[in-house]
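queue> pop job 88
queue> type: inverse folding (structure -> sequence)
queue> payload:
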């Protein structure tokens, strides 16, 4: 079965309000019609910001040094996000000549993409399910609840209850139940 894929274009790094240790990597399609967010840790957000600011120190940092050492620019590579597993995007680094796949953490794949100019694609069906309308001047970013960690989900649920936002709390609790059902099937 052929994979229909949408190329993603990196648009920037954002913060998650109320979380000091997480960031968001923002992508859109080429036409800037829809956008998608990938959660990353604060250190990865900082690494990506170094590259966006073109800081000279990056020339001697590990990703750049390894890319030069391995002549990674001469390889035919692409990154494909093809599934969502336990709140994390399954991301694969493909050698398009040998079709050899290698699993890679989504945020690491983004850094590699920036350093080595490797295109990132997402399964089109997954992209349509997970993306939201793109707004260039948006003050916030929507994040699909199925892409956040269990810890973030619980924190968001606690905050929704504290803020008496019961509709949101109900939605978050439904996501927790859905995840727990999935875990029950694995342990049965």
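queue> result:
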């Amino acid at each position: 079965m052929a994979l229909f894929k949408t190329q993603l274009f990196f648009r920037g790094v954002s913060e998650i309000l109320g979380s000091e240790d997480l960031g968001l990597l923002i992508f859109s399609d080429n036409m800037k019609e829809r956008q998608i967010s990938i959660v990353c840790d604060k250190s990865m957000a900082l690494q990506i910001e170094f590259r966006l600011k073109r800081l000279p120190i990056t020339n001697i940092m590990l990703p750049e040094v390894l890319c030069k050492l391995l002549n990674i620019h001469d390889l035919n590579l692409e990154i494909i996000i093809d599934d969502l597993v336990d709140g994390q995007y399954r991301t694969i680094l493909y050698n398009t000549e040998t079709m050899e796949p290698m699993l890679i953490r989504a945020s690491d794949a983004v850094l590699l993409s920036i350093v080595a100019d490797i295109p990132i694609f997402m399964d089109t069906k997954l992209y349509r399910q997970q993306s939201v309308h793109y707004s260039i001047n948006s003050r916030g970013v929507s994040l699909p609840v199925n892409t956040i960690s269990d810890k973030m989900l619980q924190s968001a649920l606690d905050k929704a209850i504290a803020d008496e936002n019961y509709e949101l709390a109900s939605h978050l609790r439904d996501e927790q139940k859905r995840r727990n059902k999935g875990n029950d099937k694995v342990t049965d």
